[in-house]
Amino acid sequence: MFEQLIEKVKGKLLSPDSVGALLELSRSQIHRLAKEKEIEAVKLGSRTTRITGDSIAAYLERKAGVMRTPVCVKKIKTAPSA
C-alpha cells in the first residue's frame, strides 16, 4: 500500500509542508509527530526544519502494520421499518 511512497521518500530531507501533503496532515500535525519522536526532524537553521525520509518510511511501515491488524466489527441491529 505504502511501498511506492516509502521508496519515494527514503534518503531525502523533506519540508514539513511536503511531508504534510504526502501524508495528508497539517504542518502542525507534522511538528507534533516530530516533537513526540514519531518522525525525525533536523534543524538546518533558526527557522528551517527538515524531516528525514527514512523516518517517514519507518512511520509509514509502523502505521501499515497497525492498519493490517484485524478489527472486530459488531453488527448493529436496526429498528424495523414501518
Jot down its keywords:
82 residues, elongated, 3 strands, mainly alpha
Summarize the structure.
This protein is mainly α. It has helices at residues 3-9, 16-23, 27-35, 53-67, and strands at 13-14, 41-43, 49-52.
Structural class: mainly alpha
How many helices? The count is 4
- How many structural units, i.e. domains? 1
Q: Poorly predicted ranges (pLDDT <50, ≥5 residues)? A: none
The SSE string, one letter per element, is HEHHEEH
- The rounded distance between the terminal residues' Cα atoms is 44 Å
The overall average pLDDT, rounded, is 83
What is the CATH C-level name? Answer: Mainly Alpha
What's the total number of strands? Answer: 3
Q: How are strands sequenced across the largest beta sheet?
A: 1-3-2
Instruction: Give the proportion of residues in helices.
Output: 40-55%
Strand content: 5-15%
CATH architecture: Orthogonal Bundle
Shape, principal axes of CA atoms: elongated
Biggest sheet features? 3 strands, antiparallel
Here the CATH topology equals: Arc Repressor Mutant, subunit A
Over all CA atoms, what is the radius of gyration?
18 Å
